[in-house]
Amino acid sequence: MRSIPLIEGNLPIRPLEISDHKKGFVELLGQLTVCPQLTESEFQVRFAEVAKLGENHCICVIEDPNTERIIATGSVFIEKKFIRGGSKVGHIEDVVVAKTARGLCLGQRMVNHLVDHAKATGCYKVVLACAPELREFYEKCGFEDKNVQMSVYF
Amino acid sequence: MEPEPLVENGKINGQKTELNIRQLEISDHAKGFVELLSQLSTCPSLSQSEFEARFADLAALGDDHHIAVVEDPTLGRIVATGSIFIEKKFLRGCSSVAHIEDVVVDKATRGAHLGQRIINYLVDHAKAAGCYKVILDCTPELRVFYEKCGFEEKNVQMALYF
């Protein structure tokens, strides 16, 4: 029986690439929420829209080299404000680690990477919203409970 | 010293004044826009050119970043503001989510429902832009206000300061 290679804990984190469409990026997002398949061209259009924002919208992934599948992702976008002397705030969104790749601290590594990106672009803070059960995970990443998130759906 | 305007029942000093919502303009720098924001958070003065630079950054995003203001024409001052930016996602079939930020109504002009009007305006903008939801963060005390605007409590907001 072929032994399944263990996923190393220090896989690199890199920006999303066009070719990640074929590596299960959209399927991975489906572990987070409703995520219909995207055609290659739908993916490319969205990719181009996000790429136009440059460092102000950064989507990162971790690829498992054994399977050539994306096993973790997260994004941060930079909001420019007038307050605080024209400050910037980083918003972390869509963090997900594949169910088969949990327990390797990939989530924490991803969040740290996104936080570093926000710091490097001059943000004064990073914010994110999460379910109450994830509070402890994000506290381990250095976040603290701040406010309530409210939403309205169309 | 001029007395503060008395705002009652949607009227200012007994007169019905049109308080329309419009998009932020460059000239709002001279109308107290930054000073109003300081009622929300630390907000040092910005020079005209600092303001213009930030204004240009946001204008470059077009409809994806929209700052609304209400000007009191009797004072030539901005008395309410709120902003919304549109985040483009891959999930949910390449959906968009709107984020409301920096909503503030001048302390001296409260009671004219400007807060609720600004929120409704921003939510309409998000809907017209094709967003599937609008989200915002607020202190627990403001929960009731946002519920009146049609929002419901969803998640916890967490923050990390540098």
UniProtKB/TrEMBL annotation, chain A:
CDD domains: NAT_SF. PROSITE patterns: GNAT. GO terms for molecular function: glucosamine 6-phosphate N-acetyltransferase activity. Residues 11-154 form the N-acetyltransferase domain. One of its GO terms (biological process) is UDP-N-acetylglucosamine biosynthetic process. It is a peripheral membrane protein. Keywords: Acyltransferase, Endoplasmic reticulum, Membrane, Transferase. Homodimer. This is Glucosamine 6-phosphate N-acetyltransferase. It comes from Carex littledalei. The lineage of its organism: Eukaryota, Viridiplantae, Streptophyta, Embryophyta, Tracheophyta.
TrEMBL record, chain B:
The keyword ATP-binding does not apply. One of its GO terms (molecular function) is glucosamine 6-phosphate N-acetyltransferase activity. Keywords: Acyltransferase, Endoplasmic reticulum, Membrane, Transferase. Belongs to the acetyltransferase family. GNA1 subfamily. One of its GO terms (cellular component) is endoplasmic reticulum membrane. It is a peripheral membrane protein. This is Glucosamine 6-phosphate N-acetyltransferase. Pfam families: Acetyltransf_1 (PF00583). The keyword Cell wall biogenesis/degradation does not apply. Its EC number is 2.3.1.4. Residues 19-162 form the N-acetyltransferase domain. Pathway: Nucleotide-sugar biosynthesis; UDP-N-acetyl-alpha-D-glucosamine biosynthesis; N-acetyl-alpha-D-glucosamine 1-phosphate from alpha-D-glucosamine 6-phosphate (route I): step 1/2. Its main location: endoplasmic reticulum.
